[in-house]
Amino acid sequence: MKNLSFPGLPRVLIVDDEEGVREGLRTLLQHEGLHVETAGTAEDGLRRVETRSFDIVLLDLNLPGADGLSSITRFRQGNPAPDVLILTGYGTVAKTVESMRKGASDVIEKPFSSDRILAVVRRVLETRQLKNELTWLQGRVRELTATELVGLSPAIREVQTRIDQVAHAPDTTVLITGQSGTGKELVARCVHERSTRRHGPFVAINCAALTEALLEAELFGYEPGAFTGAAREGKDGLFAVAASGTLFLDEIGEMEPTLQAKLLRVLQERTFRRVGGVQDVAVDVRIIASTNRDLRQMVQTGGFREDLFYRLNVMAVHVPPLRDRAEDVPLLSHFFLDQIGRQMGKALSGFTEEAMETLCEYAWPGNVRELRNAIEHACIVCPNGMIDELHLPKFTGGAPDGSDEIDRTNLVLEGQDRSIRALESQLVQKVLDDTHWNISRAASILGINRTTLYNKIRVYELGKRPLRKVLA
Fold it and tell me: Does residue 6 have a pLDDT over 50?
């Protein structure tokens, strides 16, 4: 945990027959921003657990009446069950083993230090928060469909709002812009599925994949014998196939100028002619186009017709790159894991904290497509269970490839402060920078655990980690 500022004030129950211990722990934990209640006996503590939920129960083993060891199971009957931390002045291996067997999360021997209590409480609350987030993500993934835009970030919510707006105008032309791999075709499918045209076909074609002549024949169809090699019975084009539905023209910026003129006529007149034909054919189809190029710039340089641009750009939807919606990476990752895992028939339950941290830190120049490919790679490599950092492709920084080696030159203190605190602050900052803020590797180099490193980042006010650099 970076700090103990948890939403909703996590609740802690202290059950100990020594008033000095109860009040000392209450003061310590309340100072850290937690809601704390106390009880002097196991019976009193159990009554409190039955009436309200707690996140942590600090339970003394040696209590009057029912002792702590025999009460652990009853304290853990809540939903969700609290984590029980055993406090004991009579620590033995046998009691420790028995406490853990009954469900205790940790055993803390008396006398204990404030640092020991805070470290355990932080770790437990961090784990509970991660479990809650995982449960929520898995539930949200189960609600998603294949044609839903996945994400909760402000950037993607804006896209969802635009989709809802244009869905109510089933004849309006839509221009979708964004980098390759951001999910422009998915946006087009969302528009189609939410409109009254959803009962008609959704037909997609990549304008960059065909020559001008082939693209024209595919779009408009052709009459028998219209050109050498044409089918004798002719062929319907995609405008006819997509009748009453949606025609998605991907990479519209690659379309040749002469074909742009013919597309403009379709948009203006709502009719088209088959190649080699003389009759106008009425068309009832919504056009959605997409591009990763700047069409305005292309208009200025003569690469794209200005009149066609304005006809296409009636309603514009810009799909942001994944780096601008990094908070969606966990949900997307779980969505792809669920999807791909089921396809492969593997029992993959989620991601380790280190793996998710790596996924969230990487800049994703290939956007959502690259993220999906990385999850597919991990699903292939991971035999079962949790996806770990080492299962991720090297380009994400997931597998060790020498890119995080730190510069082991002398550390030079800046300013006049020569204290150990100043030295430690600069050392932590240097290791974080040299490992691109990979918390797991930085903690390993520094010889401390992740929780301690997070605490030092907070205490020394080292700031928020940047996005992981794209590795060559």
Answer: no
